[in-house]
Automatic annotation (TrEMBL):
EC numbers: 2.7.10.2
All residue ranges annotated as the AAA domain in the record: 70-230
Catalytic activities: L-tyrosyl-[protein] + ATP = O-phospho-L-tyrosyl-[protein] + ADP + H(+)
Pfam families: AAA_31
Enzyme category, top tier: transferase
InterPro entries reported for this sequence: AAA_dom, Bact_polysacc_biosynth/exp, P-loop_NTPase, Wzc-like_C
PANTHER family named in the record: FERRIC ENTEROBACTIN TRANSPORT PROTEIN FEPE (PTHR32309:SF13), TYROSINE-PROTEIN KINASE (PTHR32309)
Family: Belongs to the CpsD/CapB family.
Organism (species): Pseudoduganella namucuonensis
Any one Gene Ontology cellular component term annotated for this protein: plasma membrane
The name this protein goes by in its record: non-specific protein-tyrosine kinase
Keyword tags: ATP-binding, Kinase, Nucleotide-binding, Receptor, Transferase, Tyrosine-protein kinase
Gene3D superfamilies assigned: P-loop containing nucleotide triphosphate hydrolases
Length: 252
């Protein structure tokens, strides 16, 4: 699964798309033109420990630490909102590129938030050996940000995400470019098995917890499912103690 020249496969996606940045700004999300808004400052704080964890104390890269999955216990806690904002915030870093992966393959919501159409993506690569990453990764109008869509739905999504092909794809994504950070928008942990399978292969996990909604039981079970992960970060989302723009979360 090499990041090779574009294929002529009929399912291959267009290689460039335009994110609706005006709509993101209206949703109170991070944009390069948004300045020092409260939500931008929040995600500057959130991303800093994630970036620090990319390297060990001796300066050597930590294996797969640049693979970051954003998940939640249940739907509606704001994981897609957080994944997109995190990716956009990291894309502002110097000498860094970001690949945002829609791994919520059963119910992909990133296209609606970003104003994109349907494109081939992650599932298509796993289902069709003729496709390469270059066929399905979308360049965007945010210079340092690319997107890997979810692609077609499949009943064997869990098995595909747990397959050797997926492990090889993750290694390819993690290792091909030294400056690449990959942010995955995951399915909810307690509704699907795909999220736990994905999290087990990630270097870092961001678990989104909805203020005054996520129960202790749900949080404990979600943490149990990702307990094998060494680096777990909690994001307390939609809290009333923050400004309205900072606590707003897209309902996924």
């Amino acid at each position: 699964m090499k990041d090779a020249a574009p294929s002529e496969h009929p399912g291959a996606a267009p290689r460039a798309v335009a994110i609706d940045l005006r709509r993101l700004a209206e949703l109170g999300m991070v944009t390069h033109e948004g300045g020092r808004s409260p939500v931008a400052e929040d995600f500057r704080i959130i991303k800093r420990p994630l970036l620090r964890n990319l390297r060990a104390e001796d300066g050597s890269p930590r294996p797969h630490a640049n693979l970051i999955i954003v998940c939640s216990a249940l739907p509606g806690e704001g994981k897609t909102y957080c994944a997109i904002n995190l990716a956009l915030s990291i894309a502002m870093e110097r000498d860094t590129t970001v690949l945002l992966v829609d791994a919520d393959v059963a119910r992909p919501s990133m296209p609606g938030v970003l104003g994109l159409g349907e494109h081939a993506g992650l599932m298509d690569i796993l289902l069709d050996q003729r496709l390469t990453l270059s066929d399905v990764i979308l360049k965007t109008n945010v210079p340092a940000l690319s997107i890997l869509p979810a692609g077609r739905s499949n009943r064997q999504a869990t098995e595909l995400l747990a397959s050797r092909d997926m492990s090889e794809l993750l290694s390819e994504i993690a290792n091909r470019y030294a400056d690449r950070i990959v942010v995955f928008d995951s399915p909810p942990l307690l509704l699907t098995t795909e999220a736990g399978v994905l999290a087990a292969q990630m270097g870092q996990v961001v678990l989104v917890v909805e203020a005054e909604s996520t129960t202790q039981a749900a949080l404990r079970e979600a943490l149990r499912q990702i307990e094998s992960c060494k680096h777990i970060h909690l994001v307390y989302n939609k809290t009333r103690a923050l400004p309205a723009s900072a606590r707003h979360g897209y309902d996924r």
